[in-house]
Amino acid sequence: MVRLTLAQQLTASLVEQIGNGTYREGDRLPSLRECMRLFGHSKNTVINAYEALASQGLVEARHGQGFFVRQGATSHSEADEPQPYARAMDTVWLMRQQFVREPSHSPLGEGFPPVDWLMDMRLDKFTRQIMRTGVNTLFRYGNRLGNASLRQHLAQKLASYSISASPRQIVTTHGANHALDLIIRRFIAHGDAVLVEDPGYYPLFGKLQLQGAQMLSVPRLADGPDLQVLEQHLRTHTPKLFFIQSVGHNPTGSDISPSKAHRLVQLAQQYNFILVDDDALADFKPASAIKVSALDQLQRSLYVGSFSKSVSAALRVGFIAGSKDIIDELGDLKMLLHTSSSEFCERVVDVILTEGHFLRHLIRLQERLKTATSIGLQMLDEIGAQVLCRPEQSLYLWARFAHIDDAKQLTRELQPKGFMIAPGHIFSPEQSSINPWTRLNVAYLNDPLLKAVLKD
Questions:
Q1: Which of 55, 67, 130, 428 is the most exposed, having the fewest neighbouring CB atoms within 10 Å of its CB?
Q2: What b/e string do you get for 313-330 counting C-beta neighbours within 10 Å, with b at 16 or more?
């Protein structure tokens, strides 16, 4: 077998993305420096890859601007439809771009709160406490369902959301993404129909593509999913799961209305599908915020939680709550794939939840978020932007700007001025479609320079 050089591998990846529309005609490819940071390649490797694309007639170099996809480069036949692995790699590319931080750029499109919002957690104090007590257990695998004490605290946390679950109905995971992966592996086979929100959480789309699932898009409105479209899908397909975010929806920041939440539970019972309630931003919202899993009491729903955004993404602690039978199955699957989750990380989170300090941290976090949301909405109003909804507190706002039909155009215009946004097309299962919306992190909207730039 001939081994491809790094430049050839990069060229092949970009050819695939141009062919399937991830990069459309007229789109600018990442700059040489951006591509070097994304993949850890040398400058010569990236230059060789871009020159190879140019020699194939797929891109053209514009002096002082970069490399752009040429007209006609994105046309391809249905016979060239990428396989599931290749389609999932498009999402990996997007994730790499999202996770790279340019120190000189304002991270408007970032999915996390600022680090200084989380610094009062003093993780160093909690880790030292773990090392002083029961250190011997840190050298062995943990329980397949997760640390018992942590699951007890998670049951109490769920009770504050009006969700009744025993510790035996909870399995811990390496964050919410691992939780979603376990659920997909357990319930979805190649070709199965799955309901997803559009716009929605784009790493989920990559996981479903990798599994070969058939994604059925349900538009996300200001008050939750479009039930009319949902019912049309239910009458013509037999989906096994509907992945939904009840509150703090990523990317729109919207919350589901009580009437829609109740109707969703009824439809799940009527059409025999499971609601996967991804609540990774629960700590940013009041405990009283309505959730479909609370209405359903985990009968036809699974609740997914995480501490990545409210405590630390580095700890990688999440969990799934559901019926005892399903949790047993997911626990076995977790053991087969990963043996166990991190006993050390779970004990750190367990100690954090034990301390009254965590509640004070959440109060401060939500107060900061409420202030930032108000300021962000005011700024967007002043420049004439349109927002999908006006939440009292949300890490994200979903906005579109006057005279912008494709948010990728706005991305290209803002990047040289020091601002990185998350254009709307990446949050759709059809990532090649034109989308005028963009996700904005409210923590970074209070910026006079940004306001001046967007007004122009």
A1: 55
A2: eebbbbbbbbbeebbbbb
pLDDT in tens, 88-129: 445 555 555 555 556 666 788 888 899 999 988 878 777 777
Residues 169 and 270 in one domain: yes
Q: For residue range 281-314, list pLDDT tens digits in order.
A: 999 999 999 999 999 999 999 999 999 999 998 8
Beta strands in 335-406 (DSSP E): 386-387, 396-400
Domain that holds residue 34: 6-81
Residue 41 sits in the same domain as residue 135: no
- Identify the domain boundary among 357, 390, 414: 357
Per the domain annotation, does 314 fall within a domain? yes
Q: What is the CA radius of gyration of the chain?
A: 23
DSSP state of 30: P
Separation in Å, CA 455 to CA 162, 403, 417, 420: 44, 11, 13, 17
Q: Structural domain tally of the chain? A: 2
Q: Tell me the CATH number at 45.
A: 1.10.10.10
Average pLDDT, stretch 213-227?
A: 96
User: What CATH number should be reported for the domain holding residue 298?
Assistant: 3.40.640.10
Position 4 scores a pLDDT of 65
- In the block, residue with structure tokens 């579109």: 400
Burial readout 123-154 (b: 16 or more C-beta within 10 A, e: otherwise): eeebbeebeeeeeeeeeeebbbbbbeebbebb
Of the candidates 43, 64, 81, which is a domain's last residue? Answer: 81
pLDDT in tens, 336-392: 998 889 988 999 899 899 877 889 999 999 999 999 999 999 999 999 999 999 999
